[in-house]
Design a protein that fits this description.
Four Helix Bundle (Hemerythrin (Met), subunit A), mainly alpha, 47% helix, 147 residues, globular
């Protein structure tokens, strides 16, 4: 499974982010392209420890459930995201897009980091889990807008 710590994988996602336009038509959901930029940026901020989180109760906090969801299962459309990933409000398109690409590079540069913040829904996370979750989450939303 792909990881956002792989340079080639991250470059592919950077290219997909670059192809996203403010007028892109969504295939499902209610988010606008700009809301997606901010939402994905907030997920990275959670992973980087910039946004504090509160644990959400549920089986996804435990093995093997989180590994199955982060691994082989398709990302469900309409799944509720933790409130922390809705912190940033859209501002100016190019600035929000640049912020996301900078956050993604910052995240990718921490591949050797040993300790990682907990995820609100998935609990304790390793480098490998964060790298795969980030790919899966980004792919879900960029595909949502054909990017």
């Amino acid at each position: 499974m792909s990881s956002m710590f792989d340079n080639a994988t991250r470059a592919e996602f950077q290219q997909r982010i670059g192809s996203l336009t403010p007028n892109a038509t969504r295939k499902w959901g209610r988010m606008s392209p700009q809301q997606v930029l901010c939402h994905l940026g907030d997920q990275l901020r959670v992973a980087l420890g910039d946004i504090p989180t509160k644990p959400l109760a549920g089986p996804l906090r435990y093995s093997p459930f989180k590994e199955i969801v982060i691994g082989p299962l398709p990302w469900p459309r309409g799944a509720k995201s933790p409130p922390e990933t809705w912190t940033t409000k859209p501002g100016e398109w190019e600035r929000d897009k640049a912020t996301l690409t900078e956050l993604l590079e910052r995240f990718g540069s921490r591949g050797s980091q040993q300790e990682w913040p907990d995820h609100p829904r998935f609990g304790s996370m390793t480098r490998d889990l964060w790298g795969r979750l980030t790919c899966k989450h980004f792919n879900h939303h960029l595909t949502q807008f054909s990017a």
